[in-house]
Amino acid sequence: MSIELKNITKQFGAVAAVNQVTFSVQEGELMALLGPSGGGKTTVLRMIAGLEVPTSGDILIRGQRVNELSVQQRNIGFVFQNYALFKNMNVFKNIAFGLKIKKWKRRDIKARVAELVSLLGLEGLEKRYAHQLSGGQRQRVAIARALAPKPSVLLLDEPFGAVDAKIRQELREWLVTLHHELSVTTIFVTHDQEEAMEVSNRIVIFSKGDLEQIGTPREVYEQPANEFVARFIGVMNVLDTEVKAGVARVGELQFGTPNQPDGARLRIGFRPYAVQVSTDVNLFPYRAVLHRTYFLGIMLRLEFELASGLVLRSRMTKEEYAQLGLEDGKEVSLQIRNYRILATEEAALPPERQSAYQPPPSIAENI
Amino acid sequence: MAGNVPQVNRQATAKSQRGTEESPLVKWLLVGVCGVFLAVFLLLPLVNVFAQALVKGWQVYWASLHEPDSVSAIKLTLLIAVIVVPLNTLFGVCAAWAIAKFEFRGKSLLITLIDLPFAVSPVVAGLIYIIMFGLQGYFGPWLDKHDIQIIFAVPGIALATIFVTFPFVARELIPVMQATGREQEEAALTLGASGWKTFWHVTLPSVKWGLLYGIILCNARAMGEFGAVSVVSGHVSGVTNTMPLHVEKLYNEYQGPAAFAVASLLALLALVTLGLKSLLEWKQQRDYQRAQVSAAETVAGPKSA
Amino acid sequence: MRSQRYNPLPGFGLTMGCTILYLSVIVLIPIGGLFLRTLELSWADFWRLATADRALAAYKLTFGASLIAALVNAVFGTVVAWVLVRYEFPGKRFFDALVDFPFALPTAVAGLTLSNLFAANGWLGQWLVPLGIKGSFTPLGVVIALTFIGLPFVVRTLQPVLEGFEREVEEAAATLGAGRLRTFFSIVAPTLLPAIITGFALAFARAIGEYGSVIFIAGNKPYESEIAPLLIVIRLEEYDYTGAIALAVVLLVVSFCLLITINLLERWASRFQN
């Protein structure tokens, strides 16, 4: 057990930025803290580092309670969102800083910096200053600096937030490789679910200071613990329904829901992939018209309008689209293979006006 | 290169026809008004100082500067600067650290209080120390009994000068320190650096131009202060006269050229101050632009520098 | 003093302690001492000292001249700031640096050279005095000196605001058919006004306390060209401490009020920027 958080709460004034959070990180794991901004994930990271102190609860690193240890004593490596490179020092001095503080011998410092420079592909940049580096280079310097004193855990705050989309993709792959080589316990914060899914072994999802779910990327995608997770990870169709005779209905759609009393209101969700499409209008139970097609590269997003006016979203590859011979305005039949009850209690249903969930723009479209 | 010239001209004409430009007439009228105003109020007084100082030639000029009272005034002025500037620098750094890097209640009140000496008349600044340490003041009798002289002596002059130059360093440093944020310091802490090491290796280098700027302004005012010093100095020629006070004394004795000779040294100090100030502003701006450029490139991709 | 937000940086207690201690010893306790002395006076005595005829004449000159000087600076300072920000012309950088000259030049030197310039045989005086414009040793001299020392305030307050002013706003007005003058008065001027007023208030506050430059040029005749700070010095030289204190308290209170006004003005001005 590399890092354990037990009932961590952090109050800022009357607001709980982090509320009763408990989770643990295994030795060598690559873990993502995921959530919308203001979810408390950065606060958790800073508490592990010792840059914030929890209001209550314990933090353990390798079994040792570190609440009382200052940030200097915790032996962590921290990569800041904007990298926080020392502007007055060149790359070499930035990386060497932590080693100098630990009073390493000059020769050892040189060797260690050289090692990191080659590990991170920074050869030839040792004499440069932060303003002479590209975003990606700066990030690698920040990671090299954090790794230099051989920390027991590497913490990264939105490591890909400050670089553009293209470099971001390279950096993700590169971080996975790096982690594989070093196998140092790594925790990173991100608001991008796609990034979390792609990079990490496990994901911790936060919302408004609460821990919503911990699991592997596959677990949180396929078995979301609640509505928030379901909607935050990936795109989802969300419908408010009412139960009649064991079947939840909205418009012509029907979802079998045994064990639910008549009159219960349910919120049902399903992924775009769950919508099965056929051009044979009699194959599947629901008749619909292809309302609009969005081309997103290799994947297409389709919007189908049912006879009742409900709009459902679906996804398919170009090949499938071509095979089916679809085009806007075409009549099709649909079925829904897989769905989840997202919320049951009437009180737990916040107003949901739209028939299909509109994902916020920050959520990547190409899942 | 020659081929570029007409292009530039075309651009210039195109620009002057834009809807948000004044007509050339208005523009040059405004430039003219500005030029005349600045020439009469700034340039002419400056040139006049040196012209009047040299009106009787270099020899008289040198003689006036080598006169014992002048020499002692110069020495005293330098001594005051040597006492005052380091103290206010130390204070400025302390205040800036506390204000820029921490959140606490009453911060804006504290900033206002630090600015207070700018709002107080220099004469009043001198007066308050007379009330504290003068013979009729709160501590006067006690000081007199122990034979310690503050008013009409160097300590009084130093105190009054500290008061009027009090805000300079802090004022310049606070915004610069706030702008650099806390991340670099936090990064140093996560690497195991102590507070002192963090300050010395990370904070100080990143605010050095701002600090220097404050020190230069503080020094200029410390050497040039007149009102506050005039009240507490006692005007003992050769003992408690600083350069500005010596200028006044010479002027009152109708020694025009001599007064201007000493004044020319102070004007020179002002010019050096202005020069350094411009240089530092340029450096700060360059650093800022570099930071802006690099921030933009973080998004835009690598750069071959 | 410390809020709940944890800050891992050390040294708050030490630096804050030093700051408060130094501030108290140098500024707060001495100013407090001055006010404490005033309490030893009866109200009637204070009033008599603070509103003696000679004092009233001195206030009138100090505040009147400061007001005129600050107004002159508000007008010309706006022109100077506009020209320095908007136009390119030879010597621009030099003039820009020169604007700070009154900040850097010791006031005694400023007074000395201005008084010489406007004297009957001075570079400007030889032309102006025959026209009946006597700059030296008159109340006009006070205005001249105070204009000089207050010159940078309006320019330096206005410059960053003008630089940050979006040209698009003016362009928008132009696309809507507004002429240049119309655009200036209905779009530009209202945005600049808070900064101009702030600069004006700063120049005014500085002028009220000014001593060094004025006494060289004013002539210092009681009831005519004697400013309030000078009257304090005269009272001190007469060992009339209570008289000096009464005048000083009046000046201090005015300064404090101005300081508060300026703080409010700056807050108001910053509302127009992001």
Characteristic key phrases:
heterotrimer, A: 367 residues, alpha+beta, 6-stranded mixed beta sheet, 5-stranded antiparallel beta sheet, 25% helix, 33% strand, disordered C terminus, C: 274 residues, mainly alpha, 76% helix, 0% strand, globular
Shape of chain A: elongated
Percent of residues in β-strands of chain A: 25-35%
Shape call of chain C: globular
Q: Find the structural class of chain A using helix and strand composition.
A: alpha+beta
Q: Biggest sheet of chain A: strands, sense, closure?
A: 6 strands, mixed
How many helices of chain C? The count is: 13
Multimeric status of the protein? heterotrimer
On the 0-100 scale, what is the average pLDDT of chain C?
Answer: 89
Low-confidence stretches of chain C: none
Radius of gyration of chain A (CA) equals 25 Å
Q: Provide the low-confidence segments of chain A as ranges.
A: 351-367
- Fraction of residues of chain A in helices? 10-25%
CA distance, first residue to last residue of chain A: 33 Å
**Helix-strand topology string of chain C:** HHHHHHHHHHHHH
Estimated structural class of chain C: mainly alpha
Order of helix and strand elements from N to C terminus of chain A: EEEHEEEHHHEHEHEEHHEEEEEEEEHEE
Secondary-structure map with pairings?
The complex is a heterotrimer of chains A (367), B (305) and C (274).
Chain A: E1 3-12, E2 15-25, E3 30-34, H1 41-49, E4 56-61, E5 64-65, E6 76-79, H2 91-101, H3 106-119, H4 135-147, E7 153-157, H5 165-182, E8 185-190, H6 193-199, E9 202-207, E10 210-215, H7 217-222, H8 227-232, E11 237-244, E12 247-250, E13 253-256, E14 265-270, E15 275-278, E16 286-295, E17 299-306, E18 311-317, H9 318-324, E19 331-336, E20 340-343
Parallel strand pairs in A: 3-8, 3-9, 6-7, 7-8
Antiparallel strand pairs in A: 1-2, 1-4, 4-5, 9-10, 11-12, 11-14, 12-13, 14-20, 15-19, 16-17, 16-19, 17-18
Chain B: H1 4-16, H2 24-53, H3 57-66, H4 68-101, H5 107-119, H6 122-133, H7 140-145, H8 154-165, H9 168-180, H10 183-190, H11 195-206, H12 208-224, H13 227-233, H14 243-252, H15 256-300
Helix pairs in contact in B: 2-15, 3-15, 4-8, 4-9, 4-12, 4-14, 6-8, 6-13, 8-12, 8-13, 9-12, 10-11, 12-15, 14-15
Chain C: H1 12-39, H2 43-50, H3 53-86, H4 92-98, H5 101-104, H6 107-118, H7 125-128, H8 139-164, H9 167-175, H10 180-209, H11 212-217, H12 228-237, H13 241-270
Helix pairs in contact in C: 1-13, 2-13, 3-8, 3-10, 6-8, 8-10, 9-10, 10-13, 12-13
